[in-house]
Description:
The complex is a heterodimer. Chain A is an alpha/beta fold. Chain A has a domain at 21-112 and 187-266: Rossmann fold (3-Layer(aba) Sandwich). Chain A is 34% helix and 25% strand. Chain A has a six-stranded mixed sheet, with helices on both faces. Chain A has a four-stranded antiparallel sheet with strand order 2-1-4-5, covered by helices on one side. In chain A, helix 4 (137-150) packs across helix 6. The longest helix of chain A is centred in the middle third of the chain and has 14 residues, at 137-150. Chain A is globular and about 55 Å long. The two termini of chain A are 17 Å apart. In chain A, 46% of the residues are buried. Chain B folds into two domains: 3-61; 67-307, Orthogonal Bundle (MetI-like fold). In chain B, 75% of the residues lie in helices and 0% in strands. Chain B has helices at residues 3-10, 18-61, 67-71, 84-115, 120-132, 137-151, 159-183, 187-195, 200-228, 232-236, 257-264, 270-307. Chain B is globular and about 80 Å long. The two termini of chain B are 52 Å apart. The interface between A and B is medium-sized, with 30 and 22 residues.
Amino acid sequence: MIELDQSIVRQEEATAKEVELESVIDVKDLSFYYGQTQALYNIDMKIYKNRVTSIIGPSGCGKSTMLRCFNRMNDLIEGTRVEGQILLNEKNIYEKDIDPVRLRRHIGMVFQQPNPFPKSIFDNVAYGPRMFGTHNREKLQEISEISLKKAALWNEVKDRLHKSALSLSGGQQQRLCIARAIAVEPEVILMDEPASALDPIATTFIEDLIDELKKNYTVVIVTHNMQQAGRVGDYTAFFLNGYMEEFDTTEKLFLNPASKKTADYISGRFG
Amino acid sequence: MSEMQLTMNESKGTVLSSSEAKDNIKKEKVKGIIFQIMCVIAALFGIVSLGALLMYVIYEAAGWLDWQFISSSPSRFAEKAGVLPPLVGSSFVIALVALFSLPLGVGSAIYLEEYSKQSYLRRFIEINIANLAGVPSIVYGLLGLGLFVSTFNLPHGIVLVGAFTLTLRVLPIVIVSSQEAIKAVPDLQRHASLGLGATRWQMIRTVVLPEAMPGVLTGTIIALANAMGETAPLIMIGAATTMFTPPHGIMSSFSALPLQIYAWSDFPQSEFQHGVTPAAIVVLLVIILSLNGIAIYARNKFYQRNRQK
């Protein structure tokens, strides 16, 4: 067993507390297919409210696919098929009467590559609320300010809200994307390797931000960086070849993994 | 490392001596320079030809191109001849072509790129549109005659029929260049928009179209500039070679610059051959080159604006 520095692992309360935690998303026996190829096999997991859940695993294990199942972004790819259920607040999001557009207003997403629109910083953050019908100038300005503050970007951009978003640095652009996602007040924020395109300092910023965000939102983050999962996640899921090998509190998964494959991955024997 | 060692190291499997290797490199370099010169000549060829044409035409037109020329009507007398009616006719028709072809062309491109799924039908449509862009324009003239004049019973030689016919001519080009502009918008932008809970149409309207617009407009303006010089289709649908008054409505008869130029080039008097006709050609060229210039300028400006404010 590798020696993990206790300080980099989230100090979590005793596992018994799990029982008290509210689960926002419940994945039940989920299988996912790209055409004929199966990418996910019978996944069962819970995402707990106001906690950060990390999904780790080697390349191609299905973690990004899993993430995109939560907000039905996989629907955009032709030929995909889902079996099983994903319950958001007890309602299956893959039911016929669920509109993915409305779903995505509850579950937001931040992508690996920062992708602000080639518009002004203000127009980026106000984009979501505008799509929903908010056109009142003061309201939009208020929402933008709040969101930019929550994303720890306000002080850096408050004097140049009407400059192009593309004039920001990579780390700032990513925080802008987070502010943009927050502006629609989602319940859950999905993050697909949000810091992998950023330098180490910007990465630390983002990780601290995620820590703050979980006070108001639930976060699910996919990362290929194990140390990051250890730093940031309250819960960690280890995916391998489309199966969820293990899911537990980060402390338990890293210090005392139940599965040998998990232990091998964490100790760097593969992946 | 000495030359000798260098050659021996790099020619482990070959039998070149050091002087043969040096010669070889020299020969290749010379071939490279010759090739480069040939490429430069090829590039200059086009520019020099165009320059020579422009210079010849402008030289001949000097003295004939003045305000009176632009504001008068054609006449048997060279000094009185003017280009106003065909100028208005061409401009009017092209403006209508722009009005018709933009929504139709961009709409088709949006449908093909954003709404339709990959299928044999879609592939079939795309191939046909690409082929249509290469059909000779006289065929469009025949189509216009058969469809608008014979079948729809519109009068021939009127502005509306000219505009419809040229719209058909220009449409495939507008569709293809709009498609390219839309394809160039990165998927990451689309996903960002949809991920925030936008509907498909909202995404197209607020993200795809604004980013694609410069490319769409550039392609369209260039196509319109070309259409300005179209002669055969307009002859087929019955446009006049010479009109003495400019068209006053979409149902008026009209004439167009290329047609008038063609008519004047038949007049034997040297004032027409070496004065009036070149002057009219200059007018046409100025319009076409300005349109192209606007398209390129606008595209550059948008490109800069989108990349860094």
